[in-house]
Design a protein that fits this description.
Layout lengths: L6 H18 L10 H26 L3 H4 L6 H12 L12 E8 L5 E3 L5 E2 L5 E4 L5 E3 L5 E5 L3 E12 L11 E2 L2 E2 L6 E6 L12 H28 L2
Antiparallel strand pairs: 1-7, 1-10, 2-5, 3-4, 3-9, 4-7, 6-7, 8-10
Helix pairs in contact: 1-2, 4-5
Length: about 230
């Protein structure tokens, strides 16, 4: 865990050492600039300040109410996960966005949508077939679509999933800027609705806020199970 020390931390450590040593060695000179102070106080104050700050940090990590006041970092995240794991409450992971897309072709013919096909949004977010498998789409299933610019095209509707989990996958409806190779008759692909469902990994702040309800819900479920078991005897 990272420990950032301030001048106030050093001053408090020095004040503590001066008070402690003065009470035990009243005849010694611990005034600023004295050799005794430099040897017995100043040289040790840095170590004491570090240890005191570390102790405060460790204590804070034992309580959700206190850990929420610490600066956010990976150690804080891990500590929160460890505390809440005692109640079987876990952090929600990131989820990929899903979207229904239409693939347009210049003629009606069967084609194979490969599992490794990719559709790229202008933002750089990539999408792949949600099934994760190569799918054969027959020409009979393609729907004729009249467009002013392209005449009659034939469309297939497929479900796509963002290749990277997270909120950036929630793209707005529109045409994909580029794709990998699909088929010689392939014209372009677009989404008619916005992509939804993409969520980032739950933040520690949100996890702590959700924890009381999650813990109470688990307690209610446990109590109901216990009641049913007791009533069955």
């Amino acid at each position: 865990m990272a420990t950032d020390l301030t001048q106030q931390d050093f001053s408090q450590a020095e004040d503590f050492l001066v008070g402690y040593l003065t009470a035990r060695v009243p005849d010694a000179d611990f005034s600023p600039g004295s050799s005794v102070r430099d040897l017995c106080v100043t040289s040790i104050a840095h170590v004491l300040a570090f240890l005191r700050k570390e102790l405060q940090s460790v204590k804070a990590r034992q309580s959700l109410s206190q850990i929420a006041l610490l600066p956010p970092d990976e150690d804080v995240d891990e500590a929160v996960d460890a505390i809440l794991s005692n109640w079987f409450v876990t952090r929600k992971g990131a989820l990929p966005a899903l979207v229904s897309a239409r693939l347009y072709f210049t003629a009606r013919a069967s084609f194979s949508l490969r599992a490794d096909a990719r559709f790229f949004h202008a933002s750089g977010v990539g999408f792949a077939p949600a099934s994760g498998e190569t799918t054969v789409i027959t020409g009979d299933s393609l729907e004729p679509v009249n467009t002013l610019a392209n005449g009659t095209l034939y469309a297939a509707t497929v479900l796509l999933k963002a290749t990277t989990a997270g909120a950036p996958g929630n793209i707005l409806a529109g045409r994909f800027s580029s794709t990998t190779y699909i088929d010689p008759l392939f014209a372009y692909a677009e989404t008619l609705t916005d992509a939804t469902g993409g969520t980032d990994t739950e933040t520690t702040e949100d996890l702590i806020a959700r924890a009381p309800l999650a813990i109470s819900t688990r307690s209610l479920v446990k109590d109901r199970k216990s009641t049913r078991l007791n009533s069955s005897h």
